[in-house]
Design brief:
mainly alpha, Four Helix Bundle (Hemerythrin (Met), subunit A), about 70% helix, 8 helices
Length: about 150
Amino acid sequence: MNRKDFQQLSEIRLKEAEALLAAGCFEGAYYLAGYAVECAFKACIAKKTQEHDFPDKKLVERSHTHDLERLADAAGLLKLIESEVKNSKDFETQWELVSEWTEHSRYRFFPQEGKLNSIAYISLRMFLDAIENTKGGILPWIKQYW
């Protein structure tokens, strides 16, 4: 896997998440949307690795995770995120929502009946907007550094 692969996977996972949301497959949409962010951070980490350089062991170990905050730190972006959170209420709201995602979300269920169905949809729509929104969204912000 290289930087371009992670960039492409980030875009693919986001498209898949949107398609799953539209199809009412909420669990898969949530899970893949989080992976879109994970892949974006991994693209940033890959950018820091120079061809023919032997990778730093600590960076490699910190990079093999699904934890978004740890990946942001490994990418050298966590302090920038913290600064952005202090300066932008929109970004703070988006980061709070997105940073709650974990790979264990594959076990998360969303209510699928009646009125609760619309609540699940709205919740997921907010999550996806937090990721892809051009104003304060996490993915457009990460793309500045990948």
